[in-house]
Amino acid sequence: MKKIRIYFLALIAVLFAACGGNSFKVTGHIEGANDSTQMVLEVANNGLWLIADSVTPDENGKFAVSLPAPAHAEIYRLRYMDKAICFPIDSIDNIAIKSNMETFATGYSLSGSTHAEDMMKVDKKAMYMHGASEEDMKAWKRELSEQILMEPSSIVAYYIINKYIGDEPLFNPYNKEDMKIIGAVANAYNTFKSSDPRTDYLVALAMNSRKLHEVNVKQDTVVVDEVPLIDIELQDNNGAVQKLSDVAAQGKVVLVNFTVYSDELSPAFNKILADEYGKYKSRGLEIYQIAYDTDEFQWRQAAKNLPWITVYDENGVNSKYLALYNVGGFPALFVLNRKGELVERVIDIEKLSSTLAKYM
User: pTM higher than 0.70 for the full model?
Assistant: First the structure.
């Protein structure tokens, strides 16, 4: 069976706060591409990828894109189908990309800024760390930690602490040692970049994780691997307030899902949830689904036909719940056991059924 991985992309143009009319430029040469090759330039926004511009190379695979400079450093990516090359843009950077169609997102090179080259090195190293030994992973994280602490307020530091290797976060906010590095980045952003839109997210993440560690640590010894419930309180499609803690108090296994109903892949994703709900509902499964659609009416129309709890977060990508749960993309899935403890994050949708079975 082909592995199913669903990533929601927001198919809307993004408007930038330009810095004095300045602009940045991205040029590239993609061998094997031509004027019928369709690519897009996207910018990260609190877990969503927003389309900034379309990219069509000439007959020789060359292209150039110029856009208004962002008010704050941002992470962009050049995407061709499901392959992407990530790089940062800080004001008026000029980034050059070289690659080819066969090894688009693996055999590429970036030039034009030190941060872009640093991000490229991180991503290329990450390709070789899948299945790496625990010792090798620790050694690499020590190197990355030193790099982060040299410039904790950089966009690269932010990128690293939010990166995943396969299904696991590179720096886990529920790991005490990792949290020190995440906390250093949060503190640096709060001190030097208080107006950066990422700062509130980082501070909330650091504060919440610190509280979790205080609960789980007794006499310097970790008591449990599970973490307490992070409560959510929002209105459902009938206007009733639904508290996640109330649902968890019923002794059920709860699947918490952060999602976007308006995405074209949402029906297929909800069909997967419906299959699991039908299989395990009688054994005590509940689904608590939080929607982040920009159109509330559209959400209500879709939600009224679903058999599980559906709530709406009007704060969108600025929601505190996204920060508290460290949600970096949609859909995001978390499992609460019958004690109401947050026990697992499901990254691979193909493993959802086997993951739920462990707690039923």
Answer: no
